[in-house]
Amino acid sequence: MRKPAAAKPARKKPAKVKAVAKVAEPAMDVAVGRRIRDLRRVRQFSLETVAARTDLSIGFLSQIERGLSSPSLRVLATLADMLGVGIAALFGASPSADGASDQVVTRGLQRPELKLWRTGVSKQLLSPASADNKLNLFLVHLEPGGSTGDELYTHDGEEAGLVLEGEMMLTVDSETWSLKSGDSFRFASRRPHRFSNPANDAKSVVLWVNCVTGAG
Question: pLDDT digit string (tens) for 176-194?
């Protein structure tokens, strides 16, 4: 008499991993793109004009304005210069209804944020939002490995900052410094520069000031 075959243990189905939709990032790209488009139209610049003055392709500019491409900080700084504003004007934040720029206080829960999610860099605007502001205060967050990119870039103005948490590598011209919590810096923004977080497991936070000298 044949013995019944032993039942094979049921194979466990692999647990389904739910995809985490990155809703916030594309929405941020759309908001920034819309703000760039609005500023361009106010100044009555065509895409062709912007492309010629920034060395960016018309197709790339169109993608940025439609929120289909997430520009780097270097590209945003280039566009801000060309549009005659500080980079804070690209945050998509709406100034007061009457267009006045006399707001004094920015509440902690009302900070506009520019999240460059592809590069691991985000900037919170601490000062009141206005395209006319010459002096802007930011809280910059650098994710582990976050960077402005390998290419040095320049823009109008001056900048200074204080590392609050973690570590930051700062390159200005041909010199590079490692800055840790408590270290500070200042340089003219027309000097080629870049910055990054060299840590693999820790975020860095920097209080950053930008002073625009040629906008407006």
Answer: 999 999 999 999 999 999 9
Amino acid identity of 95? P
Q: Are 151 and 78 in contact (CB under 8 A)?
A: no
Helix (H) or strand (E) holding 82: helix 73-83
CA 99 to chain centre: 24
How many angstroms separate the Cα of 71 from the Cα of each of 26, 187, 202?
Answer: 12, 24, 24
pTM of the entire structure?
A: 0.77
CB contact set of 214 (below 8 Å; sequence gap of 6+): 81, 84, 156, 157
Position 87 scores a pLDDT of: 86
145-155 confidence digits (pLDDT tens):
999 999 999 99
In sequence order, the 6+-apart residues with CB closer than 8 A to the CB of 114 are 28, 32, 76, 87, 90, 91, 122, 123, 124, 125
